[in-house]
Amino acid sequence: MAENALVKKELVYEGKAKKIWTTEDADLYISEFKDDLTAFNGEKKSSEEGKGALNNEISTELFRYLNEKGIPTHFVDMLDANHMLHKKAEVIYIEVIVRNIATGSLSKNLGIADKTVLPFTLVEFDYKNDELGDPKLNDQHCLILDLVNNTDELDYIRYMARRINTILSEFYADLDIKVVDFKLEFGRDSNGNIILIDELSPDNFRLWDANTDEKLDKDRFRQGLGGLTEAYRMVLDRIKNR
What we know:
- The mean pLDDT is 96.
- This protein has 6 helices and 14 strands.
- With 242 residues, the chain is of the alpha+beta class.
């Protein structure tokens, strides 16, 4: 069966921003991007028409770019405005946080002044567990929780996170956008290889205009600034017009 003929069958997961469905192909899933908005571990909720489609298209553009650069990802194809076809993957329950500029929780928790450019790229791990509030993890926590098989896998995840940061920071710099920080998720494909999964949208990235520091990401919702879909559209337009 042709990939673009695959249809959604069984709903296997529904999160804050996406639904994930099986297809006739056991190795391929479909993600449906939702218009829902959440912040502060789900305490603040809303919805904005068109947000899901923008996230799908932005993620598609970035996954394709990373694939061209040799980064292994789950991405296969964008099916329509709100649906992405991708490889089935076993989720590694570690949220990988990559930070270039201090803001948000980093400034709040450690007292680093907002907008401070960090002396090196910081990579942090959070436990992907909503019930526990996504607590911070160190390497030993990851091993105790059986989230990875060994420290070599953690080293590989850190390496990939830094490599992705370099690629996407350079990509966005050409669009006059700063990559402040972002969240990545990884999983294992059918062969057990660790690959990049989830999405690469302004829901998961802090993006600032390089000239004005205008926020072009979900902080517009978190901070009640308004204009979220307009900001996401600006990001997509700059990507497509590069």
